[in-house]
Write a structure and sequence with these properties.
Blueprint (H helix, E strand, L loop, with lengths): L2 E4 L2 E4 L5 H10 L5 E6 L2 E7 L10 H20 L3
Antiparallel strand pairs: 1-2, 2-4, 3-4
Length: 80
């Protein structure tokens, strides 16, 4: 976690992978995850609670992130 914008929004980064992770989450229907910049770094803004778009829990997000990052790891190591 980089910065808590509001009590129900958290920003996180995955370095150079942040933009791709965002795209993969969006393709899975994650409307409560936005892409932005904070102090010159690409970040995900994750909304929980008071946002009408937030329909999943932090546990759901962790599960989705594990899946997405795992897929990316497999794609990077696979010899085509």
């Amino acid at each position: 976690m980089l910065h808590d914008l509001m009590p129900d929004i958290v920003t996180v980064t995955f370095g150079a992978r942040t933009k791709e992770i965002h795209a993969r989450l969006k393709s899975r229907g994650w409307k409560s995850v936005g892409l932005g910049d904070w102090q010159g770094e690409r970040v995900l803004g994750v909304s929980f609670g008071g946002d009408r778009r937030a329909n999943c829990t932090a546990d759901d997000l962790v599960e989705a992130l594990i899946t997405v990052v795992g897929e990316m790891e497999i794609a990077e190591t696979r010899i085509w």
